[in-house]
Design a protein that fits this description.
alpha/beta, Rossmann fold, six-stranded parallel β-sheet, 15% strand, globular
């Protein structure tokens, strides 16, 4: 066995021992030892895409859904650079990811050799850990070193905070083994490269979540018990919602939760908060004394303004992340939010209904009635109604992956409270790139149905991700809002420059999504009436495979409808 093969086989075996079950890669020569080692190991599902960026976001989606890292492999050169957007998203969204970039050996670097760039710390500070693995050599102690690196990579990627790690592995020729040397090993490492007995990782890491001290719990209990004018605000996060919602219920505090938080449920859930807070008089009358926040605040500018103007803002984050874009947080409590809320819940008295909570609840009922009444006046399709209806029609256990730009905003503004639906999105860096591949990665890692809600530009930006449909079986339904361009810009100040708007911001593409679906072997359904959405999605899910459910809208009409919805809420108040 040559040194390149020995390194690759040992790394793969140790990564599997540490919990890796999926590998995403694009074809390349310098990465051949890793590709062959992965393909020959029956314990790993290997997913191949020709576009490195799509492969990277596929791995990201697997990590988001399964909360354990996929290994992402590239050849040397610009192939590794295409991973950078997904690495940034993994960094900002605390998603576990293990990146292994194959590299040329040191003697070929900075010499004009083909496919050779500087890959040392290529992703800068966006990784939790970087290591130059070095050129593999047949010498005593190599296997121990390689296994330690792989074990540490997995532990760091799933640590606190979770995120991406980067291993740069330089290979000299020969890059492939002799014929017959590499078969399906099923975890049996070659002699001299073996790991711990019983399939254990080389180094096991046991980690307990950070627990708040008793005086911190007592202090927080006093803050909550001492204020009736409090709010629980939840943004994109990964916490057990039960204890947080139980605390809000016992304290009588309304819950203003982004759908990506998993906390938009319960009798105190306020789903129409963005529209309510657009009424400045109402917002001023309902400014809280205390805000308890988990996760970073999402898309709502009105909610950010309310929270930043609170008497005291308390942020709980298990990783101690500085989630304070408004520079308004008074306290950062570094502890597991579910654990803290559960302990505080047991330390405060139950509060009967208050004028504060009842005022929020009455406003929610009126606002929801105004929004739903206007959306349900006819059977016309619209972007707000599509987001609202999709969030309600998916079965319990399903995952809804929502794209950035307008879809994530419409879901936040119009989705009704509900339980049983997991909502994910690339909200670390908030980009539309990689959406298709992320959603397909979520589908690969999720036993229950996966549906994506996206704009047309998000689909087109990552259409190469659809090539996975031809490579392996995957079931996903994409509900695509097609307004022939970038709809969000119609809401921004750029819209006041009509002479350049379409060219620079609207960017109409004029492409057929039906033709796109046919190109990649996907199903296509067109929804022309709002009542057709549910059967279209259900039919596509039942059929299996990858489907685009297209909803055609008009950008100008969409702006008008959003203004009418906000005005309807203002009128009902």
């Amino acid at each position: 066995m040559n040194p390149a093969q020995a390194l690759a086989v040992t790394l793969v075996d140790e990564l599997v021992r540490a919990g890796v079950r999926d590998a995403c890669l694009a074809p390349g020569s310098r990465s051949a030892p890793l590709a062959l080692a992965l393909a020959s190991d029956g314990r790993v599902s290997v997913h191949v895409l020709i576009d490195e960026r799509s492969a990277a976001f596929l791995a990201l989606g697997i990590g988001k859904a399964g909360r354990r890292p996929a290994v992402l492999v590239s050849t040397s050169g610009t192939a590794a650079a295409h991973f950078h957007p997904a690495v940034l998203e993994a960094h900002h969204s605390k998603t576990p990811l293990i990146v292994i970039t194959a590299d040329r050996p040191p003697e070929l670097r900075d010499t004009g050799a083909g496919q050779t760039i500087d890959q040392i710390k290529l992703y800068g500070d966006a990784v939790r850990w970087f290591v130059e693995v070095g050129v593999p050599e047949d010498r005593p102690g190599s296997a121990r070193y390689w296994r330690s690196v792989a074990a540490r990579a997995c532990a760091t990627a799933t640590g606190s905070p979770a995120g991406p790690v980067h291993l740069n592995a330089a290979f000299r020729d020969p890059l492939v083994p002799a014929r017959g040397e590499l078969g399906d090993r099923e975890g049996d490492a070659p002699e001299g490269l073996g790991g711990r007995e019983g399939g254990a990782p080389w180094t096991q890491v046991r980690r307990s979540p950070p627990m708040a001290a008793e005086d911190d719990v007592a202090w927080l209990a006093g803050q909550i018990a001492g204020s009736t004018r409090g709010l629980v605000v939840a943004g994109d996060c990964d916490v057990d919602p039960g204890p947080v919602l139980a605390l809000a219920d016992k304290a009588g505090w309304p819950v203003l939760a982004d759908p990506l938080s998993g906390l938009r449920s319960g009798k105190l859930a306020i789903s129409a908060y963005d529209a309510l807070l657009r009424n400045h008089a109402w917002a001023n009358e309902h400014r809280p004394d205390v805000v308890l926040r988990v996760g970073k605040i999402g898309t709502s500018k009105t909610l950010r303004a309310l929270v930043s103007g609170a008497g005291r803002e308390i942020v709980i984050d298990a990783d101690g992340m500085w989630l304070d874009a408004e520079r308004s947080a008074a306290t950062l409590l570094i502890a597991d939010p579910a654990s803290v809320c559960g302990r505080v819940c047991g330390a405060i008295p139950a509060r009967s209904k208050s004028r504060w909570s009842e005022g929020w609840r009455r406003a929610e009922i009126r606002a929801r009635g105004a929004v739903d009444g206007l959306l349900d006046l006819d059977d016309d399709v619209s972007e707000p109604r599509t987001a609202r209806d999709l969030g309600g029609l998916l079965p319990d256990g399903a995952t809804l992956v929502v794209a950035s730009s307008m879809p994530v905003r419409d879901l936040d503004w119009y989705m009704r409270p509900r339980q049983g639906l997991r909502v994910l999105g690339n909200r670390g860096a908030n980009g539309i790139d990689g959406f298709v591949s992320t959603t397909l990665g979520v589908a690969l890692a999720s036993p229950e149905p996966t549906v994506g809600l996206a704009g047309d530009l998000s689909i087109l930006h990552d259409q190469n991700g659809l090539m996975l449909r031809r490579a392996e079986p995957v079931n996903t339904v994409f509900v695509v809002i097609n307004n022939d361009g970038g709809g969000i810009f119609s809401f921004l100040p750029q819209a006041r420059w009509p002479e350049n708007f379409e060219q620079l911001f609207g960017t109409p593409h004029g492409l057929s999504l039906a033709a796109l679906a046919e190109l990649y072997g996907c199903g296509h359904r067109s929804v022309k009436r709002a009542s057709e959405l549910a059967p279209a999605v259900a039919g596509a899910m039942e059929q299996g495979g990858v489907h685009l459910v297209e909803v055609r809208t008009d950008r100008a009409a969409n702006v008008t409808l959003h203004r009418r919805l906000n005005q309807a809420v203002a009128d009902t108040l």
